[in-house]
Structure formats: C-alpha cells, structure tokens
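[RESIDUES AND BACKBONE]
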Amino acid sequence: MGEVRASDVVNAACDALVAGLDTPALRLLAACTRAEADYDVHELLPEALGELGLTFYPVASDAGQEAAARALARCMLAGELTPREFTSRIHHRYGHELPLTERLAELDDEYDTIDYGDRTVDQVNAEVTAEARRLAVHPHVPAEPTDTPS
C-alpha cells in the first residue's frame, strides 16, 4: 500500500525465514537484492503471502486501503506515530474520500485550525486516539479477488 519500501519487504521476508517460516516464494522474496526489490517484490509478494495463508490486498482496492488505515492506527496506538502524524498520513493518503477514515481527515483539519477554535490539542489527540482504537478493532473486510493463482 506504499507504506514501506520494497527493500523493507525483503528484510521482513528474511526475518520470517529466520523465525522459522519457510515457503518457496518467501525464499525467493528474501533472496532479492536491493536493486531487484523495487521490481520483483510486486510480483513475488502475493504468492509469498498466499503460501503463508495471509491476505494480499491489491494496491488500489478499498479493502487494501482500509487494511492500511487499520495498520497505521495500530502503529499510532503502539507509539510509533503521534496522533498528529497519524491524522496527517491518513489525510494525505486518502483525503476525505475513504469513509472509514473521514473523521480522521476532519481531525487533521482541526489540528490546522487549533489556534482559532475552542478545543485544545489534548482534546483533539484524545479523539484521534479513540478513532485509532475504533479502526484497530474494525472488522476486517474480505479480500478482493487478485490475479494471483492459488
């Protein structure tokens, strides 16, 4: 979904092999050089995820966008992003177009006008945190079909 570099996916595949997961496509993915990663990850990742029983979301799919938003919410809740960084990334990526994240886009706008309103940063942060919790537990959407054979 554009949240990590292709070389990070290759590193994650290496970590998975070290952790004891082992499939043919995962081995191919882990074997990619940094130069190959940008080209080969897009082809190898769907098969590797399928072999591991994980869902591959096509980049432009609604299900993929919602899964990425939920993952960002979990990152914020884990302290990897501030509430402001979280809303900014969501707003930049989806604007006001993704119904699941519409309130977060509105809250990002609120941060921009905090000096002119009657709410404090702490109040907006609290609402962002509540929205992140809602997203993190939001029911998963069934995957949309991919071109990858099973």
